[in-house]
Design a protein that fits this description.
With about 120 residues, this protein is of the alpha+beta class. Helix content is about 25%, strand content about 35%. The protein contains three helices and eight strands; from the N terminus they run ββαβαββββαβ. The protein has helices at about 20-30, 45-55, 100-110, and strands spanning about 1-10, 15, 35, 65-70, 75-80, 85, 90-95, 115-119. Helix 1 packs across helix 3. The protein is globular and about 35 Å long. The two termini are about 10 Å apart.
Length: about 120
Amino acid sequence: MVMEGAITRPDGQPLGQIDDVKLKLADVFDGIRFVLVRDEGPIKASGLLATLLSFLSQRTEYPHWEGAFEGREFAVTFEFTAKPVVPRIRLALYGRGTPNATPYLAELQKRTGWRIKLN
């Protein structure tokens, strides 16, 4: 099961500076790993596949930060800009235990006031 969503502020303002955003995520998701993704890598989609993927997903901006955390029967990834100010975070939950992520997301929302919307 995969659930996707976004993290924003209710007032529409940016979430904060990159280092602050990463720290807030790490405070709740202890052991989260962050990686700076500079480009698509050597394999790029083209033609019909690229068109199909563009309809099925949001466009990925490069470079960007990705954070990954593994919990009990679930994993969550966070993706956000590498620009100095982070306007929003895209997230995806994976695994059989995605409900096990609920306490983590609730704690993040409680500590930051951010809005978390899953599709």
